[in-house]
Automatic annotation (TrEMBL):
Belongs to the annexin family. GO terms for molecular function: calcium ion binding; calcium-dependent phospholipid binding; phosphatidylserine binding. It comes from Myripristis murdjan (pinecone soldierfish). The gene is anxa14. The keyword Metal-binding does not apply. One of its GO terms (cellular component) is cytoplasm. This is Annexin A14. InterPro entries: Annexin (IPR001464), Annexin_repeat (IPR018502), Annexin_sf (IPR037104).
């Protein structure tokens, strides 16, 4: 474990994140060091500083850098670096809300399951713009599911009634999508876990299996991913990390590094038998890009 991380441990005891606020924080000094590192294209020091500061601290550094140099920090990073390391450091420099919004827009262009994953933890920022984009990019029951997730409001529901409603929706000649959209997007996670467990007991099969039989296309895939995220979100994230695809790995690690990446790491170890820290070193990641990912991951389990 690196010394800078160790010094931040006491002030953040109990956190489930791996990136923590840096103690004795001096944004003026950080901004000056970053300016020098950018001029020399010194990726080592850029990684050292940016992966050892919380997002809130990085925002202060960016403002200080602008005052000091009259230049935008993100633009300066783009000029000095390239490739996957550039992409990762730029992701660290934006706010969590902006990062989630970027992942949503990327997901609309790439794969529906990434869209659902992003929406499971979506923030309200850019909500109107996202709704407009999503309505233009999706259609049918899948569009209804996505829009409902963005408009999600918690309401009280009776567990047994919801179990019976979902069970009935699967029994007709054609499965009814509306109850799944209404219930899965409007109940809290504890309630939904009880509903899904009760549904499995009532039907005698796993919910994922039932959905796979009765729904198809983007909507069926969206429901499957949503159920996985409700039942065991950390296992789902661990399975996504196992692909070791750069956009997925960077997206998950940046999004969760200050909240619950320790839980994701534990799920990854349990699921694969290998720590995430070790797995990152065994894959295609190299050089300072690898060092940045390891710094965010922090340590072996």
């Amino acid at each position: 474990m690196d010394s800078e991380y160790f010094r931040s441990y006491d002030m953040c005891w109990g956190t489930l994140g791996t990136v923590r606020p840096f103690p004795n924080f001096h944004p003026d000094r950080d901004a000056a060091e970053i300016q020098m590192a950018l001029e020399k294209k010194d990726a080592v020091n850029l990684v050292r500083i940016l992966t050892n500061r919380s997002n809130a601290q990085r925002q202060v550094i960016a403002k200080t850098f602008l005052t000091l140099t009259e230049k935008d920090l993100a633009s300066a990073v783009k000029k000095a670096l390239s490739g996957e390391l550039e992409t990762l450091l730029l992701a660290l420099l934006i706010t969590p809300q902006q990062h989630d919004a970027q992942r949503l827009r990327l997901a609309m262009e790439v794969l529906s399951y990434l869209l659902i994953l992003s929406l499971c933890s979506v923030f309200s920022v850019y909500k109107k713009e996202l709704l407009k984009d999503l309505k233009g990019e999706t259609s049918g029951d899948f569009a209804k599911l996505i829009v409902a997730l963005l408009n999600k409001e918690k309401i009280s529901g009776v567990v047994q009634r919801d179990i019976e409603t979902l069970s009935a929706s699967l029994n007709g000649k054609k499965a009814d999508a509306e109850p799944w959209i209404n219930i899965l997007t409007s109940r809290d996670s504890d309630h939904l876990n009880k509903v899904l467990m009760g549904l499995e007991l009532e039907t005698g099969q796993m919910v994922e299996q039932a959905l796979q039989k009765r729904f198809s296309g983007d909507f069926g895939l969206g429901l499957k991913v949503l159920v996985q995220c409700i039942q065991n979100p950390y296992l789902y994230l661990a399975q996504r990390l196992q692909t070791m695809k750069t956009p997925i790995v960077q997206g998950i690690m940046v999004s969760h590094c200050e909240e619950d990446l320790l839980c994701v790491r534990a799920a990854y170890l349990k699921h694969t038998g290998t720590s995430l820290y070790t797995a990152l070193q065994q894959k295609q990641f190299k050089g300072e890009h690898l060092q940045a990912l390891l710094a965010i991951c922090r340590s072996e389990d």
